[in-house]
Structures are given as structure tokens and as C-alpha cells.
Amino acid sequence: MSNAVKLLQDQKLLIPSNSPVPNRKILIVDDEPEIAKGIERILSPKDSNVRTIQSSRQKISSKPAEQKGSEFEIVVVHTPEEALAAIEQSLKDDRPFAMGFFDVMLGAKIDGIELVKQAMQLDPYLFAVFVTAYHDRNVDAIGHFLGEDRREKWDYINKPFTEGEILQKARNATSLWDLNRLKEWQAERLSEAHQLLLSTEKHNAIAAIGRSVAHEFGNLLTHIIGHAEIAKFSDDIEDIKNSLDIILKAGNTAANVLKNFRNLNESNDRHPEFHIVNLMRVLDEALELMEFRFRRHNIRVHKQGLEEMSCEAIKSSLVQVFANVFINAIHAMPQGGDLYIHLESKANACNIQIRDTGGGIPEEHLVRVTEPLFTTKGSEGTGLGLAICKEIVEVEHRGRFKIENHKEGGVVVSLTFSKFQER
Asked: Does 212 map to a domain?
């Protein structure tokens, strides 16, 4: 199990919990109490004698039907004012209606269609079924009146209707309400999981770079202390001056390393901003952060091209990308090797290639190395580094991220960004 999957399980983001509760709450709006009561009896029967409902202005026929129990919670009102008040109260109570049956001819200042329009403004999730014995407005007219964005939020049923028709409309509408809320809930959980994985991999990168910074500071402090002692006990002005110059240089180097390390952590901001950045300088910052690990693993860095190229980017995110690529290169060359970095400007694009001289990636794994949670490092890897690099480049910066084996050995990572153009 990868560290990332274990983290998600620990955070309970892979196991559905606290999912939305099914909503079976239905509003019935009809100015004819007998019709409203008939629909209520179908949806929430108290006995087995349920009638087929038409209109009080038409003949009512009886039809026995067996119905056990009640699967819906019903609220009945008779005027538009009562309906809107009931919807407002349901929202305040955090117990909204899933759907409603609305008589079109309400005998009020507004008809059922206008009522539904106002109701959907209060509760955009409400599903409506129009019930009428008249045909004053056709389906297209209703759709145009309510708006194209609500075309899946309403349905139509004519009187006389049967018990089966009412039950089918109620079950379909409440199920649709449940599915939509479940979809939103799942999307929120996925977003939370995604942000957690991004944060986790960023912390992994920072931790790896932090170890390099700690070693780098150890070396710098050794230089500072050693030359401070030389200056302290020396009577030679030139020796003292040379020692102080070395101390000053070491101090400046330490300040730059610390500054770059702090910049890397800037993307913890939930809304980082894009700025015009010089890609060569961003690369240099990432190289400076990784310098100790390169020396420790006997990796020689070769920079080629070195064209001045600028793009609009989140600087700390790009430092994270380069650092992750460098870390993978170090893992690929544990006994040492060469790292080639080539910068090239073409037309409206900034191209960067980073190539190591390691053993390359097996062909069967090459197509999967940028998949989230795929790793060949066992418990040592999260399977997120390259996946997040790809997302930062392609999604966040609308660039291109490509990884492939080089014909002369090793792996080459190609990154392409849109060049900044003066407006």
C-alpha cells in the first residue's frame, strides 16, 4: 500500500461516510382540497382504498388498490403564498423538499407555472411536476418560461391520472434529487482528497529539500566557524580579510538558500498568484536547493542553452516541479551520473529538457509513471510526484509535461510553457 493511499484511508476519504440522507419530502399544491387529498392518499396511504383522481369538476371514479406503509413525507398546501412559505421554512430547517406536485390552475393571482418559477428561485434543487386538466400552455411554452437551464427540473402530468403515474413521478423525482446531491457530495470528497494529496506530496518534496538545506547549512557553518577562528587568532591582515570575505560569502549563500526554501513553501496559499518569471532563475533556485544532494551523490549538472525566457507562472509551483524532477533523477543515479538541463526558446514556447543518465524506465511502466498513486519505489514512494508535476504544468499552467526514455540512456523530462508576450 502506498503512503498516499494509507493517508487517504487514515483521513477517511476513501471510505464513504456521512453521505447524504435520502430525501422523500414532497410538497402538494392544489386549490382543490379533494384533489390534494387524493394525491396525498396515493403517496401516503392510510388504508387500501385509493381512488383514481381526476378533477372536482369532473367525475371521480373509484379503483381499489393495495398499498402498504408510506415511503414519503407529505406537506399539503392550497395557495401560492402557503407554498412559498413552506419552501422557505423547509430551507431554514435544513430539510428541503425533494419535489412537488403543482396544480397549474390555482385560482390565485399567479398560476402554478409562475409559482414554480418563484419556488425554484428559492430552492434551485426542487423538482416540479405540473398537474392539470387544462392545456393553456404547451410543454415548449412552459420550458421557455422557466428557462432552458431548468428543463430537467420539471415534468408534466394530465388529469385524470392514475395511482401508478403519481407514484412513478414521485419516485423518479426524489431519486433524481438524491442522485444529484450524492454526486455533489462525492465531488466535494474528491476535491478534499485531491487537495490532501497535493499537500502531502508538497510536504514530501519540502521535507526532502529540507534535508538538503540542513546539510548545506551544516557545511556553511563549518566554513564560517573555521574562518572565524582563523581571523580571530591571525595577525596577518590579508588572512583576516580573506577569512571575512569567505564568511560574508557563506552568509550570503545561506541567506539565498533560506530565501529559496521559503519561496518553495509559498504555494501553501490557497490562491497563489501568477507573475512573470524568468525560467532560468527559477531553475537556478531549484538547483541551489538541491546542490548538496547533487554533491553527495556525485551528480554533475550541465546547463545548456541558457536562453533568457519568461512566462506567466506561479514561481513556487515551478520550483516544486523542478525539485521533484531532480529528486527522481537522483533516485535514478544512486552511484552518480550526469544531469543535463537544456533551455530553448521556440516561437511562442519556452522549452526545458532535463535528462539524467540513469537506467531509464521499463517500457511497461513508462506510460503509467504520471498516473496518480502509481509508484515503482514500494513504501518509499507515494506515486504522486510526477503526477502532480504533470498537473501543475498542464492544468495549472496550461503547458505540456512529457517523460520518455532517451535514446542514449536515462530519462528525459520535457516541459513546455507559453512564452510571455508583451501586450
From this structure: yes
Question: Which structural domain range is residue 388 located in?
Answer: 204-418
Residues 276 and 382 in one domain: yes
* Length of the chain counted residue by residue: 423
Q: Is the pLDDT of residue 224 over 60?
A: yes
What is the rounded average pLDDT of the residues 238-261?
A: 71
Strand order of the sheet with strand 99-103? 73-77, 25-29, 99-103, 127-132, 154-158
Of 107, 127, 161, the one marking the end of a domain is 161
d(CA 291, CA 261): 13
Cell, residue 387:
503526477
C-alpha cell at 187: 465531488
The type of residue at 413 is V
Of 105, 136, 161, the position where a domain reaches its end is 161
- Model confidence over 342-401: pLDDT tens digits? 998 888 899 999 999 998 988 888 878 777 655 665 444 444 567 778 888 988 899 999
216 and 154, same structural domain?
Answer: no
Q: Tell me 18's DSSP state.
A: S
pLDDT tens digits for range 52-99: 444 444 443 434 444 445 789 999 999 999 999 999 999 999 999 999
Most confident of 2-6, 305-309, 369-373: 305-309
Orientation angle between helical segments 237-264 and 315-332, nearest 10 degrees: 100
Within-domain flag for 288: yes
- Same domain, yes or no: 211 and 340: yes
**pLDDT confidence of residue 250:** 65
The burial of 25, by beta-carbon neighbours within 10 Å (0-12 exposed, 13-18 middle, 19 or more buried), is given as: middle
Q: What residues pair up with 299 in beta bridges, in sequence order? A: 337
Establish if 192 belongs to a structural domain.
no
Where do the DSSP E strands lie in 216-305? 275-278, 299-304
* Residue-by-residue DSSP string for 223-235: HHHHHHHHHHH--
